[in-house]
What does this fold into?
Amino acid sequence: MRLDYHVPIISQQGEVSGRLHVEVYRLCEMDDSGIVSSLDSLDSNRTLDQQSIGVTFLGKTIKCRVRIKKASNLPSSLSHFVFCQYSFFNISEILVVAPIFDPNISQSDHVDISSNSNFQFDHEKVSLLSSFTLQIITLN
It folds into this structure.
């Protein structure tokens, strides 16, 4: 299952000033017996509650892919120096990612003063999350 989400971009004034399109998903792996260790491989008719899912991965290493795709609807006043800085789960590394730069597009073509700007990213990172711990959050 993929999380395909448009994360709010917060300005220094604390206001939502655009959206960052990200995708996060768990990579399937084969275990020693040749069985795919993924929720995607489970019978789609079988229903699992959150606790069952957590127990399935408890104590295992999980490999996830994070993709940064696009920043959209940024006002021109915030479009002069765009980058994405993020960390993922319990990994202490902070990653800084620049958008794709096309030298064939002039700055005046790229940022229109009267409109919002969009920036394409071409970034993906595979992260290993070791010793998966069970954390169940319920929303009422």
Residues 2-31+46-129 form one domain. The chain has one domain: 2-31+46-129. Confidence is low (pLDDT under 50) at residues 34-46, 109-113, 132-138.
